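For the sake of clarity, the format in which proteins appear in this thesis is described at this point. The fold follows as a row of integers, each naming the local backbone shape at the matching residue. One such record is shown here in full, so that the layout can be seen directly:
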Amino acid sequence: MSAAPAEGGAGAAFPWDAAMAAGLGHLRLAPRDFWAMTPRELAAALGPVGVSARQPPLRDELAALIAQFPDP
């Protein structure tokens, strides 16, 4: 199983480095507990400590979204 999107798929690979840094570093979860969590559970646990695993889109990603979904 791959975290990268299928050929022709939208989006980017899951940010595993950021997720592991947040879960194992900021929250100090045991690896067993970190890997048992869903991404949604990790995001909920990080909210109160002010850490967001979500990164803003890069300039070229934003430009692609604007081109794909233009204002009417």
Notes: The mean pLDDT is 78. Residues 16-68 form one domain. The chain is about 50% helix and 0% strand.
